Amino acid sequence: MAPQINRKSGASVHSQVPQSSDHRRRQSFWEWLLGQFHLRPPDDDEPQDWWFASTAVPLVAAATGPLANVMSIVALVMPWRSHIFFDQKDSLGNPLQVGFSDPRWCIALNATSLASGLLGNAFLLCNFTRIIRYIIALPASIICWTASMALLVAATVALHVFASPIAPNELYSQAYWSAVIAAILYFILSVILIINMLGYILGHYPQYFALTDGQRTLILQTLSFVIWLLIGAVIFSRVIDISFADALYFSDVTILTVGFGDIAPTNAIGRGILFPYAVMGIIMLGLVVGSIHQFAKDLQYDNVIRKHIERKRVATIRRATTLENNRSGPAENGTHTSDSDETAQIGYRPRYSREHPIRSSISSWTQGLVGRSKLMLMKEEKDRFDAMRAIQNETIIFRRTYNLLMSIAIFGIVWTCGAVVFWQLEEDLSYFDALYFGFCSLITVGYGDFTPTTNAAKPFFVVWSLIAVPTMTTLISEMSDTIVAWFKNATDKVADWTVLPQSSKYKAFLQRLPVIYSALERRAEKKRVAQGFPVGDLEPGQQQDDGGESSRRPRPLEDLARDSSPSRQDLAQQLAFAIRRTAKHALASRPKHYSYEEWVEFTRLIRFTDNSPEGVVLDEDEFGVLNWDWIGETSPMLASQTEPEWILDRLCESLIRYVDGQSRRQPSDQDEKPLSITNCDRDVEEPTLKKERDIRFEDD
């Protein structure tokens, strides 16, 4: 007995070892899983990623949710099965379809699904308006929409199994296929909201929807547009005497200005109601499409274009630092480098100008003040400026090309995939005919030779068209920014030389031919002498100070380097003129890009009011920005403003700084000065007093 007891106890000991290891393994797995959760508070200002899940997903859900509710309403107000009478025609000339009642359990599931879908949409709107917390509202929306999807799937499958229509005299109505489409939409909504919730749980963004006022307006516009579609469906179903699903299809075709003509008002009441309904619907559609296009542009710029600029900028700095380290090696070994070798080739080169590399000084200009000329420092800074300008110019080309290609790709997907669905849903329709029909619908031509005729095709067309038309509008807008802009620029250049000649174009061309240009200049001077006009430069008092381009040509870099420092009074006067000039540039229709020489003059006007102690270099003070690096994070070329707007802000800050400095330089006892005027004060203020006496007291 004892040996048996020992064997059992030994076996039990050995069996506890793997159990404890399994328990430890399970515990470590749960600890690892919980360690992946990083729930961030609403007021968290840390960096965010997963931009598509945090910004695009909520808007897509808010725009698609009401559409899914509309499909659920169509599925509820109409029977799911119909008798078809081939020997009778309805008001549209099609074989007469008469619906017959559905089972009570089917209606109950359908109604519960609609209520759950509306509740999920309400939770999402409360989430957007911050009425209900994110951590409560978003799971509630997911649960409601998942339940709606499950109920519709259960109802459609059960009806197909237990009470399916008997062909050929019975078939599924548009309401049944609307329920199928609604279930698909609810499934998509649930999945994308789960993705958004997953991003929050993993700590990619805080627990709120970071939406702007324009994006919230888009949500309200979309909701209003869907409600307007429902209002039209209710009205025209009564006035034209058609089914609710056909009335919804007619309202959609009318507002989208497709106008197939397969359904049309047949009486005066319907035609009269069409006037205000179509006008209001088209206006609302334009607002929705415009908001969608603006949202897409902002989303691409913030998350694609700016990241492209940042990658190019960081790559430029990284390669420039590598070149600086390679160049500093020989200097440490005693090898001399000439001034011509002080600038190194920056690693970034635009693809369209590989033969002309950008050259830049790597070290900051403040690190080379000792032992270097002012001209050399300005050239090094200009190299950094040119490098950032090259990145900026290539980014413009990248942005236009990227937006155009993305719009073409999305348009192609919507067009071709929609054609596949119509090819399968419509009888006797080839794929090429489906492509033709989809294209005519997208460009809103609507010949009417091909139209949706089956009960499955019409509800799908309503959903597909509401997705496709904004896509087409975005494509046209991007084409206007690229292809149309290129064609317009080419036409303008041809017109400048032919139909609408401009003297500046010919003058610039002749300046490239010095012999001919000098002869023409001498001839013009002889004519002015013969007419009695002066020849040569204008007097200083005659120079324009209006900031025109002819009078404000930037001076060469060598002249700027040799220029002696003017007085503060002269700089203050130039500051006022510069503010007026940049204000005009900021109001111009086309944004202006300044050359480096112009930036040097603006920079001097910004920094001459710096009141910091000698030897102290501040990036900014209490009034605003003072210093920046052209390829750094604070570069003016990375600002969201245009260059004139950015410079205008800095010049105004400099003006405020100058006024503050002048007030500090005045005597502290100025306010305590007696009212009596001494002889010295009288001499100083005599011109002012005399002017006042001449103006106000002449009669006395």
Task: Please summarize what this structure is.
Pfam families: Ion_trans_2. The protein is built from 19 helices and five strands. With 700 residues, the protein is mainly alpha-helical.
Separate helix tally: 19
Rounded to an integer in angstroms, the radius of gyration calculated over CA atoms is 37 Å
The general outline is: elongated
Strand order of the largest sheet: 2-1-3
How helical, in percent, are the residues? Answer: 55-70%
**DSSP E strands, number:** 5
CATH level-two architecture of the largest domain: Up-down Bundle
| Separation, N- and C-terminal Cα atoms | 140 Å
The SSE string, one letter per element, is HHEEHHEHHHHEEHHHHHHHHHHH
Strand content: under 5%
